[in-house]
Structure formats: structure tokens, C-alpha cells
Amino acid sequence: MTQSPASPLPAPDERRKLRESKSLTQAQVAAQVGVTRETFRSWESGRTTPRGRKGEAYATFLADIEAERQAPAATATVTAKAAATATTAPARTRRSVGRRDSAPLDRGQERGGRWGLPAATAEAGGSPSPAESPKGATEAFDRLYTHAAPGLVRQTYLLTGRRTLARESVERAFQFAWQRWPEVAVDRDPVGWVRAAAYEYAMSPWHRLRPSHRHPEAPPADADHRALLDVLLSLPSSYRRTLLLYDGVGLDLPETAAETEATTPAAAKRLLHAREAVAEQLPALAVPDQLHRRLTELAGAEKLQAPKSTLVRTEGERRTRFWTRSAIAFTVLIVGATALTLRTAPTRYEPIPAPGSMITGVPPRTGPGPLTQADKKLRDKLHKSTQSSPHRLAPAAD
């Protein structure tokens, strides 16, 4: 037999799987054990049994790989038990995990609820997990919408200064999320996914071409709120978005940089310049905590209501059907035009006739010329002969 029952080596098929799990070739393992490739191939296929010190080295090699494969399973079991234990811990303890210890730019003390949402909304880990909904994607989407839509409407209002555009941006962002729900459901921060989509739509430069954009909306009633909103809208769009994410939403600087698609140093410079611009026009807001408080008051002072989640889902599905049918109709039109062209197009070369040219050297065809004097006499004679000649008969009137 090639392998005794007492042999510590696994089965031949298992030997090959262990080697392939480490992405090693037969030549590499043979060099490591100290045998030729042909000898190692016979060991791995089970034709011969490894013996001696080299056989022990091969057995140790396989045992180490097997131990490495079993280690992640044990770690996952321990992690699952720890997660189950953590679910019974107080909510304050769970939210403290992952919270930043110190602010990179004079953040002051950690602040609580933002934009009328629970404090966990600003944290990536505080978002509700849509994938855990037991009643399907519809209920999970509704939960996410109810949780995040009111705050996102207020945020986009500070970003654009237009109430209608803020509601439209959030509505379209959630429609995008519903279209890509499998992707959003497994995202680690669904609220951040929708927020990024809403910000991108709200800050699109194409809105400037809309007729409604030519007329400004009514400003806030409070004078302080109007002054702060004017300062925000005077900032460049990238500065305004960075300031809103960091001092308004409460994201960390790396998270702010990632959402604005910038490097961390670039995001820090944008934030500093935005704060300097705000403090230059409103010196009372030079302190970040005061700026955060005023932003929260400005966002909460406006009565901005988001539409119901059912309307958002229905409109998103209708829009998807419309564009799908339009794409199908356009494709059919292109295919029909192509088929008609192939049907009516000539199948062989047809030479173009040469342009006509005038023929010279041939006299033109002419009619009778003018009567001569002799011709005139003959004509008169014939006319007279018709009436008086006895050899001719002329009709007579009764």
C-alpha cells in the first residue's frame, strides 16, 4: 500500500488542496522539503509513501497549513460569541466603540444629535442595517428613508439655499438607492451612500440652466439665519460641502475627505479656509461649537417635509420603467433603420453615367424658308383655279 493507516499524512487529494491553498507549485514545495520534483509528485499522488527526515518535513509542512486553515474558523467562533455578548451591553457602550478620541481640528467636545436625528446618524456604525430587515427590501428601504430623509433635506437646504431643490435632491437620491438597493443594503453606511448621492445631485451645475433657478427663493425670516446662509452660499461648493460634513454632520476628517473625493490634507485646507471665510464675516462663529450650533438652528428653523417613502419608491420605479422602455424603443428604432438601409442599399456597383455634351458638325434641322416671288404667283394661281376651273369641283352652298 502507498499509505499505511498509521500515517499522519492526509489523503492524496487533501495534500494537493493544502498545497494549492498556499498558492505553491510542486517545484517550490519540493525545494523546501529537499527532494526532487518527481519524488514530490509521487508523494502527493500517493504512489509512494514519504519516509525518513524528509518525509517528516513534508508531514510537518502539511500540518502547519492545516493549522492555519483551522485558525480563522476558531477566530470567527470567538468573534460571534463576543458579538452576541455585546448586543446585551448598554447602548451608550456600543456607540462609544469607534468614536474618535481627539479632533484633528479644534473640534471641542463630542456633540450629540444632529439635524433632528439620533446621535448615531452621524456615525457610520449608527445607521440602521437594511439587510437585517426580516420583511424584505421594501420595509428596509422605508426604515432607512424614515430614519435619514428629514435630516438630509435640511442638510441639502444648507448646501443649496433652495427648499424645492433640497427636497428634490433627497427624493432623487433615495430613488437611486432603491434602484441599486442590493448594493446599498450591504453598504457599511447606507445613510452616507444616500447623502453622497443627494449632495452630488444638489450641487450639479446643470441646475443653473433651469428657469426656476433664475429667481431666488424667500430667505429665512430671522436676520442671523439669513446672514449665515448668505455666507455659506458665498463659499465655493467644495468648501461649503466640506464645512457642512465636518462641522454640521460631524464626520471625521478622513471620512469627510473620502466623501468629497479629496485627500485628507486637501480636505483640511478646505475646512480651514471655509472657517476663516465664515469667521471673517461672522466673527461670533469663529468657535467651531458655535458654528455647529448655528448650523443646527438654521437647519431646524425651516419647515422642510420630505415626501412619503411609498411615493418615492413608486416614482423611482416609474422613472426606471420609462427609461427602460425608451431605451428599448430607441434600440428597436436603430435596428429597424439599419435593416431598412440594408434592404434598400444597392448590392453591386452602379456606374454613374457621364454628363452630356453638345454634338458639333451636324447641320440643324430647319423648316421651309420664305416664299419667293414665283412661289407667290403659283399660290395665287392655284387659289383662283379652285373656283373657276371646270376640272375641279367645289362645294356650293344650298
Descriptive overview:
By secondary structure, this protein is mainly α. Among the domains are: 12-86, Orthogonal Bundle (434 Repressor (Amino-terminal Domain)), CATH 1.10.260; 129-312, no CATH class. Helix content is 61%, strand content 0%. The protein has helices spanning 12-21, 26-33, 37-45, 52-86, 91-96, 137-160, 163-179, 181-185, 190-202, 223-234, 237-249, 253-259, 264-281, 288-301, 309-344, 373-388. Helix 6 crosses helix 14 and helix 11 packs across helix 13 (264-281). The longest helix is centred in the C-terminal third of the chain and has 36 residues, at 309-344. The radius of gyration is 45 Å and the shape is flat. Mean pLDDT is 76; it is low at 1-6 and 75-134.
Map the helices and strands.
Elements (H helix, E strand, L loop, with lengths): L11 H10 L4 H8 L3 H9 L6 H35 L4 H6 L40 H24 L2 H17 L1 H5 L4 H13 L20 H12 L2 H13 L3 H7 L4 H18 L6 H14 L7 H36 L28 H16 L10
Helix pairs in contact: 2-3, 6-7, 6-9, 6-14, 7-9, 7-15, 11-13, 12-13
Which key terms come to mind for this protein?
mainly alpha, disordered N terminus, 398 residues, 0% strand, 434 Repressor (Amino-terminal Domain)
Radius of gyration, taken over Cα atoms and rounded to an integer in Å: 45 Å
**Structural class, please?**
mainly alpha
What is the helical fraction, as a range of percent? 55-70%
DSSP strand tally? 0
Mean model confidence by pLDDT: 76
Outline of this structure?
Helices cover 61% and strands 0% of the residues. It is mostly helical and 398 residues long. Mean pLDDT is 76; it is low at 1-6 and 75-134.
